[in-house]
Structures are given as structure tokens and as C-alpha cells.
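mind reviewing both lines:
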Amino acid sequence: MIWRRDFTSKRDGVDRAHACVMHIVKVYRDLDAWQAAMALAEMVYCVTQALPRHELFGLTAQLRRAAVSIPSNIAEGACRRTTGAYVNHVSIALGSHAEVETCLEIAMRLGYLQRDETTKVASSIERTGQLLNGLLRSLEAGVPGRM
């Protein structure tokens, strides 16, 4: 955890702490959503090894890029200086989440993957989506200290 001090005013060139408040700020690596997204990305890399070689630059690459995009956008958003930018990045992560879900379904429909191969990944996709939605709700509500 990182501690930071917020100074709310500046008079005569000197910082004055009207309300010197210590906030607990979580690092993005501490977020359950980021950890779940990282686990999902690992699973996607494993399951896409079973895809046909001719899909290496198609469906395989698309699935992997989308999976990597989820934790990457959570991390980037968490490091932005405004809540609005953070919300935007979490929203992008949700879009990538839907993309992973859709590409995985396409791979199953094309017969590249069997449902039993993707059961664990599907569970991870669902959990990651729940956490992303929770993170987004918390950011949009502006609840301090909740990430």
C-alpha cells in the first residue's frame, strides 16, 4: 500500500494543509480484478496452444491480444491521475473481456476447442467480468479507498 498526503490549498507560495488527509491507495497489483485478469490471460495462452497452426495469426493472436489487454488496461487506468481516465480504461478492459468470451465461443463453434477444454477458462472469464463490473461500479460511485 502507498500512503500519500493531499494538500488542499496554497497561500503565499506555501503549501498549507487545510485537511491533511492520509489516503490508502492500492497498487493495481493488489486489485482482485487485475489478479483475476492475469490468471485469465495465462489460461488463454495455454488453451490457444491447441488451436490449429493456420490460426496463429488469426484467432489465436486475437484471443491472446484481447486477454493481455484486460490486465494491461486495469494497470494503465490505475496509474492515471483522474478517476475519469481510470473508468475509461476499465471500460476498455470490459470490452476486451467480451472479446475474449466471443473469440473463445468462435473457437468452440469452429470445432477447434471442445467445451470440456474451456470449462475452467469460462469460469475465469465469468469471475473476471464480475470483478471488472464491481471495480467500474466502485469507481463510478466515487467511493474513496475502494478499488
About this structure: Residues 72 and 93 are 8 Å apart (CA to CA). The chain is about 60% helix and 10% strand.
